[in-house]
Amino acid sequence: MASNAETAGKRLVLIGGGHAHVLVLEAFARHPEPGLAITLVSRDRLTPYSGMLPGHLAGTYTRDEIHIDLERLAQASGARLICDEAVGFDRAARRVRLKGGGELAYDILSVDIGITPDLSGIAGAEEHALAVKPIGSLLEKWDRLVESALAPNGPRRFAIVGGGAAGICLAFAVTAFLRNRLSDAIEVSLIGAAEAPGINAGMRRRIARALKRRGIAVHVEDAAVSIDGDGVALASGRCVPADAVLISTHAAPPPVLAATDWAKDESGFLAIGPTLQILNDEVAFAVGDCATMIAHPRPKAGVFAVRQGPVLAQNLRRAVRGEALETTIPQRDHLLLIATGDGRAIGGRGRFLAFEGRLAWRLKDVIDRRFMRRFA
Ligand SMILES: Cc1cc2nc3c(=O)[nH]c(=O)nc-3n(C[C@H](O)[C@H](O)[C@H](O)COP(=O)(O)OP(=O)(O)OC[C@H]3O[C@@H](n4cnc5c(N)ncnc54)[C@H](O)[C@@H]3O)c2cc1C
C-alpha cells in the first residue's frame, strides 16, 4: 500500500458530473485519500439521474428526486467544485482550459462529459425540433414545451424521433404527462429508423402492445428525413403531422474533444482500454457516453457509466498511488426496464427474458430510488 507521502500534493481533476463521476466522488467520500486534491468541473450544479428521467417527465418523480447535488457530494468527498465548462485540453502540459477563463493543472484526469445531439442527418431539425440529449439541458426545454402545451392554442400533436430505448421511454412519458393534463386531446407518434437495438423479441412484442394500448402511433423502419412547422417527413414519403417534435436519435461526441490528440474511435468518441485509461495517455481516463471501449464497444446508456463508476474510483486511487490498475469488461447485456407511464413497466434481459406488469414498475422504482439514496 502506498504511503500518504506518495499521494500528497497530487491533483485529480474530474471533468463532468456524469454518472460515473458521482460514484467516484461517493467512493472518495467513504474512503478519503489523504493529501489528494480533487477538483470537479461541471457545467451544472445538479446532475439528473437518467434512470428516473422518464419518470420525472411522466410526472411521477419531482425534480429534486431525480437530481444529484454535486456541491453537496463534492463537499462530502473533500473535493472542490468548479461550476464551469472545459473548453480545451493540453495533454502535453496536463492542463484543462475553462470557459470562465481559468486553467487547471492535473496529475490525473478523468473525463465524463456525455454526448451532444447529432441532428445533421435530418433537415430542419435544428430549427423545428427539441433534442433530448444530452439530458443535462433537456429539462429547461421540457419546461418550455409544457408551458406552451398547456396554453389554449398550444401544441397537441407530438412526434418523438428515435425508436431506441430512450425514444420509447420518452413516448410513454410524454403521453402519460400530457394526457393527465389535457385529457385525450393529444396525439403522440413514435418514429424509428430501425427496430430498437438491445431489446429482445419478447420485450418488443410487449412494447408494441403497450404503445397501441396507450394510443401512440408507431412508424418503424421509416427514418425521419426532414422536419418543418407541419411535421416530420419520412424516408417512405409519408408525413407525420406534428406541432412539436422531440429528437432522441444517435448522438455525437462533445465538440471539445475534436481538437484533442487523444485516441478516438471512428466516430470521434475517446478510445479507452479495459483500465478506462485513454489508449494513448496513461494519466487520462474517460468514461460514460463520451468514451468507447475499443475492444468491447457497448451502446451509449447510463447503465454502463454507472457500472464503470466503482472501477474508475478504484483505478484513479491506484493511479495516484502509482499502483497497478484493475481491468473491467462491460457486461454484454443488462436488465432493461421501460416504464409505460400507467403504473406498469416492461422488463427484460439478454435474448429471451421478457416480463411486464405493475411488479416490474415496482422493481424499477426500488432500484432507482436505492441508487439515489447513495447521494442523499
Ligand atoms: C429520455 C432519456 C431516457 C434515458 N433513460 C435511460 C435509462 O433508463 N437507462 C439508461 O441506462 N440510460 C438512459 N438514457 C441514456 C443516459 O441518459 C445516458 O447514457 C447517460 O446520461 C450517460 O451518462 P454520462 O455519465 O456519460 O453523461 P451525462 O449523464 O450526460 O453527464 C455528463 C455531464 O457532464 C457535463 N458536461 C458536459 N460537457 C462538459 C464540459 N465540457 N465541461 C464540464 N462539464 C461538462 C454535463 O453538464 C453533464 O452533467 C436515457 C436518455 C434519455 C435522453
Describe the structure concisely.
This protein is an alpha/beta fold. It is 31% helix and 27% strand. It is globular.
Folded structure, characterized:
Residues 11-309 form the FAD/NAD(P)-binding domain. Keywords: FAD, Flavoprotein, Membrane, Oxidoreductase, Transmembrane, Transmembrane helix. It holds the Pfam family Pyr_redox_2. The chain crosses the membrane at residues 158-178. It is built from 11 helices and 26 strands. It has 376 residues and is of the alpha/beta class. It has 2 domains: 4-115 and 253-321, FAD/NAD(P)-binding domain; 117-249, FAD/NAD(P)-binding domain (3-Layer(bba) Sandwich). The strands form 8 sheets. A 6-stranded mixed β-sheet has the order 5-2-1-9-22-21, covered by helices on one side. Strands 11-18-12-13-14 form a 5-stranded parallel β-sheet. The longest helix has 20 residues, at 302-321.
Protein topology:
Blueprint: H1 4-7, E1 11-15, H2 19-30, E2 37-42, E3 46-48, H3 53-57, H4 63-66, E4 67-69, H5 70-76, E5 80-83, E6 86-90, E7 95-98, E8 103-105, E9 108-111, E10 116-117, H6 125-128, E11 129-131, H7 138-150, E12 157-161, H8 165-182, E13 187-191, H9 201-213, E14 216-219, E15 224-228, E16 231-234, E17 239-241, E18 244-247, E19 251-252, E20 270-272, E21 277-278, E22 281-286, E23 291-293, H10 302-321, E24 336-339, E25 345-349, E26 353-357, H11 358-373
Parallel strand pairs: 1-2, 1-9, 2-5, 9-22, 11-18, 12-13, 12-18, 13-14, 20-23
Antiparallel strand pairs: 3-4, 6-7, 7-8, 10-19, 15-16, 16-17, 21-22, 24-25, 25-26
Bound molecules: flavin-adenine dinucleotide.
The site of flavin-adenine dinucleotide (FAD) has 39 residues, from helix 2, strand 2, helix 3, helix 8 and helix 10.
